[in-house]
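#struct-pred

JT: dropping the chains for the assembly here, can someone run the whole complex?
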Amino acid sequence: MSDEIIITENITKYYNRGKPNEVLAVNDVTIRIRRGDIAVLMGPSGSGKTTLLSLIGCMSRPTSGRVMVEGKDVSRLPERFLTTIRRKTFGFIFQLLHLVSGVSVCENVMLPLCPTDTKPSKLRKRAEELLESLGMSGRKDFPVQEISGGEQQRTAIARALINDPDIIIADEPTAHLDTHLSGKFMTIMRGLQEKGKTIIIATHDPLVYEKDYVHLIFEMRDGMVKHITQRNDSLNKKVL
Amino acid sequence: MLNPGVTALVVGSIIVVILISYAVALGIKILRKWDINSTSEEQLSLERKTYLVSTLVQYTLGFEILSTLLFLYTADDIRYLLVGAMCAVGSLNANPYGFPTLYAKIATLFISGMWIAINYLDNSAEDFPLTRVKYKLLLFVVLFVLGESVLQFLYFLNINPDIITSCCGSLFSEESKGLASSLVALPILPNKIVFYSLLIISVVLGIATSKINKKPFTCLFSLSSFLFFFVAVVSIITFISLYFYQLPTHHCPFCILQKEYYYIGYPLYITLFGGCFLGMMVGIVEPFKNRLSLSTIIPQVQRRWSLKAVVCFVLFGMIAIAPMVFLPFSLEGY
Amino acid sequence: MSLERHRNILDYTLQALLRRKFKNIGIIIVFTSMISILGSIIFLSYSFKREATLILNASPELIVQRVMAGRHDLIQISLMKDILEIPGVRKVEPRFWGYYYDSLIKANYTLIAADEAVLRDNRLLKGHLPEPQEKNVTAIGKGVADARLLDLGDMFSLQSADGRWIEFKVIGIFESESDLLTSDLIIISTRDFKSLAKLPDGMATDLLVSVRNKVEAPTIAKKIKERFPDTRPLLRDEIIRTYDAVFGWRSGLILICFIGALTAFIILAWDKAMGLSAEEKKEIGILKAIGWETSDVLEMKFWEGIIVSLTSFLTGIILAYLHVFFLGASLFAPALKGWSIIYPSFRLAPFINPYQIATLLAITVVPYIASTIIPSWKVSITDPDELMRG
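RK: done, full complex below.
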């Protein structure tokens, strides 16, 4: 059994298929990511990175092709099952963070597991532990709109970790951060990877993809993967 | 018939008929274009519509429960308008639509519940294996809902205060003619034997089904639950109610829902309906076991349902027997 | 058991509602007002019905009146003997009563001679009722006492049929504010009544007939009508049914008028539910993106509807209760009561049963929840992907 945690086979994604505003966002993409890798999707905006992330992350279904997550084909699953897998396997960090305004830091972190059978006290305890590991215990009861940008990002990271996911997906995480905070972010990611988590980041920030502990870089353009760089065994593989 | 209760029932029925008809319209569309293997946006949209349909049917069930109770209460309330009516039975007897409306409401309760149970199973599997079954069943649901609404409307429309109706005392007495009096005239001892035997059989079969999930058991349990429903209702009329009223002549199955009897009718009927419904469903879903995606899910569900049904039956038995044990009234000599 | 899940979602919904309390306050206020009005109508009509039924239940099964050219006329007391001979009749009593118009305050009182029947049916009374042979004393209802500012021991003048003013000493006042039928009563002795009204000898206003077995009452009524064709026997049960029908009809009519207003409200509720604010849309998008399923969001919207409607419902029925049973339903009691008699401060005995609550629920909460189903669904199917793409 391969330890490839994510496999996509010739996946294609159209938006508004058959309508005048039809868009081909991802075009025949095949990638493989192993467990414990830090993989980066690199490319300018409009290259299809975000769409590919949402396909991998079980947020949407491909128009054609297969997506395998931990060996299971998720491409044709109904929404209910897709959500279950997403909840179990993935943690998301969005570009704009998307924290719920008016809700406290701790409660924001607890939100993903709210509609589950987890006891609220257990959930809160776990959220507080995560926030402490990220240095946020002092701010846990603050409304999320009253904390700094960096603190908001750490809240978003904590939220992505509340369900102890195997895979963490981050979309342009450093776009609104300064160099210092970008560095801190990558340090946290590296720490998580060392604990066995798989990290997939979409970015065009060299501060991210130039780190030597990034294992895979997928260069994307016009919805296709143009180049794959594999770092750890020093193989420079050219595609297309 | 501008009684507030009647207004509420009629308005509520109209709303439910509109909602369930809309659900059926969606259902037909879903049935026609459903293709689980497609990833088109249309299929996605259909999958989303299934949520709406199930919400609408759940709402219908909720309202049917409320409306059945409200219907009985309203029938009781309008008894003053009808000469001879002393409780709901008399009101229902005022024209030929009364009792059929009640039966239709009860049937609608069961069929909506059945739909929700099947929907639950359908959603538990990854490939929506029961979609076609489900939406065909929906057509029956809407027929029942329409039927009971029409009957209810006709009932209220035809309430004529000048007609003398019979109260439960005379309806359920041995002298009068009709089904109710034949029930009352049944000899009590054989009735008791049948009731207790079937109760015990159902409980035993339910426990067996939860342990041995094989076809003979599931089907037998389902059948015994179905039979027990009718036996229990008959028994309530013939002897169980007598112990609650402590009167050898008061056979009414509705008066126990009243305040005077501490609303004991509610737990009695809730456990009976719940137990019989779950028991019947165990057998009804048996044919779906052969679908691959349901082959592991259905046995688990059957196990859970049979255990819950057993609990309901046991509670029902305890409530029914309690007055016989704890109250001084005895039927010996009557 | 997945109760934790439901509890968590409910918790979140409550918090979300509190965060957006001003948005929902409009709906809650309107809904509460509607429910309190509808509740008032239902409580009031049932209270009247119950009051009337309670009183009537105590009265005899038959009232025999004489009819002349279609109008109610005095009846010969000598008929009592003949009626007693009918099998099944237990007792026959004459009754003397009428109306008295008080030109001073332009009100109608009900004037009754004190006799056994009245004595039987006496309610909370300060003082006592006049004995049948007592002279120039009276017991009056609370409404009369308040209107004419009378207390025990005061003198009260009534004008007789031949124009003389006769003085009566008030020896009793009905205390119960909740007594629908005693509020406007003036009770005097039979002697005084006959002289005040100049009643011819041997005549009474009507006859009260008690029967041994109430099931026989319609048969006996028929026999009386056959034997004395110019009489009109009234069955107590018929009267109860008439009250019932009239109250039911009146309240039903008002209810129908309100259905129009309610429909408008439901449309408003739908409209609001459909048009979600950008902030709400975003919040749901986030929830879907971080792992909430469509059914979770649907449940959240369901709880929202329940919380809003039940809050309005409970507040509404409390207001309705206060309005009817503490403020005398000042808003529309006249429409329901239908008499033009003085009822300055009138209090009904509080009476609520689960049936009324269930009816109110079915007319208000049920349509409201129904109107939120489709808008809730539309919102719940938000594509999480949309949020990713911004």
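JT: nice. Residues 3-54+242-388 of chain C form one domain. The first strand of chain C starts at residue 62 and ends at 68.
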